[in-house]
Amino acid sequence: MELELRHLRTIRTIAEAGSLTRAATALGLAQPALSAQLKRIERALGGALFERGRHGVRATPLGELVLERARVVLPAVSELQREATRFARARQEPERLRLGGTHGPLLGALVDRLAEAAPGATVTTRASWSERELAEQLSEGLLDFALTGTCGSASPPGVGHLVWQEIAVDPVFVMLADGHPLAYGPEIGLAALADEEWACVPGDGCFADCFTAACARAGFSPRRMYETDTSSVVHLVQVGRAVGLCRASFPTTPGIATRPLTGTPLVWRHLLGWHPATQQPGTAATVLAQARTAHAGTAARSATYTDWLAERSGRP
Hints:
Order of helices and strands: HHHEEHEHEHEEEHEHEEEHH
Shape: elongated
Largest sheet: 9 strands, mixed
Oligomer: single chain
Number of helices: 10
Mean pLDDT: 88
Structural class: alpha/beta
Radius of gyration: 28 Å
C-alpha cells in the first residue's frame, strides 16, 4: 500500500483526538474500521505509530516523525489546491474583472477606462475602507485587482506574495467650506488650522498617526477627528462642521474648496495590487496602465491640483 494524503490526515486526527474512539467519531468511521486502517498504514510505514494505553494513544518516535512531516505536507497541499483554484478561475473567466478599492473617485475612473478598453468585459467593484481586507480578498481569490494605497513610504498591505505597483503619488490637501476665511489662499500652513475639527475617511494604515505627528510638528494636537465615509466627509465640510483631508486628485465639489498644505506634510501613494498566480501578465499590465491613465484624468479635473503641479514644474 502506498501512503496517501488521506492517510496523513487520519494520523493527524488520531494524534489530535488522543484516542481511536474520538478519532473515529471525528472521521465518521466505526472504531474497528479505523483500527484496521491504522494497522495498514503502520505496515506501509514499517512500524507502530501510536502506543495504546488506558487513557488513549500516544505517538511513538516513528509517529512523531510522521506527524512532523504531515504538519508541513498537509498545509502545503491545501495551499496548492487554493492556488490552482485561483489560477483556473482566472483563466476560465477572462471576461470578468472584480475590482476592489478604497478611493471612490479613482475607482470609478478606472471602471470607466476599463469599460472603454475592454468593452466585452464585465467589471464589478467592491469598496472597503480597509486596505488589509482588500489584500486578504486578493489572497483568497475574491478579487482580481485592488486599488488602494499607503501613507508616504509605508509598506503595502497584505502578505508578501501579492504584487503591488505604484500608480501615482499625491500630496494630501485640505478641504474647506467655500465661506471659510482660508478657502482661497494659495496654500495653508497646518498651524493655521489648529482650532479646527477634522474629517477624513478611515483606514487601517498609518495615515492617522502621520497626521497626528504632522500636527505635533506644527505645534498643536487635533481637536477632534471624524472618521467616516467620503459622502459624510464632504457634508461635514460643506456645512462648516469640520475641515477635511483628501488626496489632491479629489474632484472639484460644489460648496468646497481644496487647498494645498504648506510644505506638503502628508502624501498618499496610490497602489494597484493583484495575486500573480491568478493574473496573466498582459491583463495586469493593461489594468495598471488604465489605472495610471484614470489617475491622470482625475488629477486634471482638479483646478487646484493642476495649478499646484504647474507651479512646481516651473520652479528651478
